[in-house]
Amino acid sequence: MPELQFSNPIFAAYAASAATMVLLGVVTAWATVIQMMRHKGGFRAPEDLRRTPLNPQPRPDQTAPLEAVDRYRRIMQNHLENLPFFLVIGLLFVLTGPSVALARWLFAGYVVSRLLHFLSYASAQVHDIRATFWTIGSLILVAMSVRVLAAGVAAL
Fold it and tell me: Which pTM value belongs to this model?
């Protein structure tokens, strides 16, 4: 299937965008861990209160909610609610044979919107700013979905 080869610039743009989104998720997971270690709290499970080399002086309050940690957990939850849609519809969109320019704009637009959403959430910007970036990404998903749906219906 030549559409799904890196020699296809549309697939290459999708692959780069998808890899960037996966890396954003991994970075967010690491940011959560870093915040937990930095604040020595925000742990989730009771066994996290055991004495270990990384937690030599456990305290009972270490499993209490901690905003610095929970903020990154909320960002991760948002990623988990949004990124799989992009990974699926983006790949199907490649198969519709869009122009290279359109594909690049949509993929880059989605990536930039999610990166800006991450940065605005991580820096505690107001909801309106986060919502704007989320909306941009969501509308891009809708546009790709409509094209995939049209291609699928046309092929029936």
Answer: 0.92
In the chain, which ranges are E strands?
Answer: none
CATH number at residue 69: 1.20.120.550
Domain of residue 121 covers 2-154
pLDDT digits (tens), the chain, 156 positions: 788 999 999 999 999 999 999 999 999 999 999 999 999 999 999 998 899 998 899 999 999 999 999 999 999 999 999 999 999 999 999 999 999 999 999 999 999 999 999 999 999 999 999 999 999 999 999 999 999 999 999 999
- Listed in sequence order, the residues at least 6 apart from 9 whose beta carbon sits closer than 8 Å to its beta carbon are 100, 103, 104
Pick from 141, 13, 149, 20: which is nearest to 81 by CA?
A: 141
If one counts the domains in the chain, the total is: 1
